[in-house]
UniProtKB/TrEMBL annotation:
PANTHER family, A to Z: CHOLINE MONOOXYGENASE, CHLOROPLASTIC
Cofactor(s) needed for function: Fe cation
Taxon lineage: Bacteria, Bacillati, Actinomycetota, Actinomycetes, Kitasatosporales
Alphabetical UniProt keywords: 2Fe-2S, Dioxygenase, Iron, Iron-sulfur, Metal-binding, Oxidoreductase
Any one Gene Ontology molecular-function term assigned to this protein's record: dioxygenase activity
Protein name from the UniProt record: Aromatic ring-hydroxylating dioxygenase subunit alpha
Annotated spans, Disordered: 1-24
Entry-linked SUPFAM superfamilies: Bet v1-like, ISP domain
Signal peptide limits: none
CDD domains documented for this protein: RHO_alpha_C_GbcA-like, Rieske_RO_Alpha_N
Domain of life: Bacteria
Rieske domain boundaries: 40-149
InterPro entries: Rieske_2Fe-2S, Rieske_2Fe-2S_sf, Ring_hydroxy_dOase_asu_C_dom, Rng_hydr_dOase-A
Length: 379
């Protein structure tokens, strides 16, 4: 038998944000400035940059951020802008610079720590301070094997705003640490280009009301989700696997054995965490699924989803497809639902928004959080 936490009935209806919040370009611009450019943003999986000079560029708010590895093997993040005349330095999404970072316009050259090291006729410009004219550094922290960057002049506490999300959800940070996500290997990555506003994707992820309707494979493994309650948002609660499910797979087959450090009470359970503003982490006994959202426009969000397993599982060439397929289907079902909703946000029928069922008070809290951030009241 599975258990569902008790839900306190509430009499007052919670309404959603108004429809224009999901379509208005000016609202999106404000969100870029006041949310994505102020908070820690999960940019890249650290192991993707596997050697000095390997780089990835990502859109963070209105800025392009370049993340690379220096000669000492440390990750560095910079605004992807040449300090000479402002040309975009790296135009590719990813790649490898073998010797240094050279601007394709007039060949100003920076080392992997961002220092200006060469420029044509630099000797004729004695007033150029090479340190002053280096690339603009962006603060970077690593957690769960990912590089998080922050464009704020004074970044908020990483411990409170990022790690704190796991503590808030799971009761303590040790819970997530036991999955040792930073030591896992990439078994599969799928990128989804979703024609929907980023908030619809977050709300959908936090919601369980739709599970019985659109996620038959998921509710086979996690029967309590079929009740429509967002059980994953009760502190410390993990949804229990169905007795007949051997693993978190599309066909109920066994997975790859428990990750070595997770506790007995974490076994055969699914935990989901939202790290605002753009990360979802799913924890199951033998793998971890990490979604990073990249909001590109009011009506477009790119989602990169990683399935992470023990290195020996990936190195052995084991078939991970039945566990990948389960959440890939969930993603497709969720994103299709978001894309069906997006065009209606502009309708006069949705001018004042919609309603949330009482068990979704945490989605109401998300809406309040967005509103506070835009009013400049949030951290
Ligand atoms: Fe980059 Fe001139 S703009 S070298
Ligand atoms: Fe869903």
């Amino acid at each position: 038998m599975t258990t569902t936490p008790e839900l306190a009935p509430t009499s007052s209806l919670i309404t959603t944000l108004p429809g224009t919040s999901y379509t208005d370009p000016e609202t999106f611009r404000q969100e870029q400035e006041k949310i994505f450019e102020r908070l820690w943003f999960c940019a890249v999986r650290s192991a993707d940059l596997d050697k000095p000079g390997a780089f990835r560029t990502v859109q963070v708010g209105r800025e392009s951020v370049l993340i690379t590895r220096n000669r000492k093997g440390e990750l560095r993040a910079f605004l992807n802008i040449c300090r000479h005349r402002g040309a975009r330095l790296c135009t590719e999404e990813s790649g490898e610079n073998r010797r240094n970072l050279q601007c394709p316009y007039h060949a100003w050259t920076y080392d992997f720590d961002g220092k200006l090291v060469a420029a044509p006729n630099l000797t004729s410009m004695p007033d150029i301070d090479r340190t002053e004219r280096g690339l603009v550094t962006v603060p970077l922290r690593e957690w769960l094997g990912y590089a998080w960057v922050c464009l704020a002049d004074e970044p908020p506490s990483f411990e409170d705003t990022v790690i704190g999300a796991a503590v808030e959800r799971l009761g303590d940070a040790a819970h997530i640490e036991r999955y040792r996500t930073e030591g896992l290997a990439l078994g599969k990555r799928i990128t989804y280009d979703v024609a929907a506003n980023w908030k619809l994707i977050i709300e959908n992820f936090m919601e369980c009301y739709h599970c019985a309707t659109i996620h038959p494979e998921l509710t086979d493994v996690l029967p309590e989700f079929a009740d429509g309650f967002a059980a994953q948002y009760y502190v410390g609660h993990g949804a229990e696997f169905a007795p007949e499910a051997e693993g978190f797979t599309v066909d109920g087959k066994g997975g790859f054995g428990r990750l070595p450090e997770i506790a007995e009470d974490q076994d055969r359970r699914y935990y989901a965490i939202t790290v605002r503003p753009q990360v979802f982490v799913n924890l199951v006994p033998d793998h971890v699924i990490v979604h990073r959202m990249f909001p590109m426009a009011a009506d477009r969000t790119v989602v990169e989803c990683d399935w992470l397993y023990l290195p020996e599982v990936v190195e052995s060439g084991a078939d991970v497809s039945s566990s990948v397929e389960l959440f890939h289907r969930v993603n497709q079902q969720d994103f299709e639902a978001c894309e069906r909703t997006q065009p209606a946000m502009d309708s006069r029928a949705y001018r004042d928004g919609g309603v949330l069922v009482p068990s979704e008070h945490h989605i109401g809290a998300f809406h309040r959080w967005v509103t506070e951030q835009l009013a400049g009241e949030g951290a």
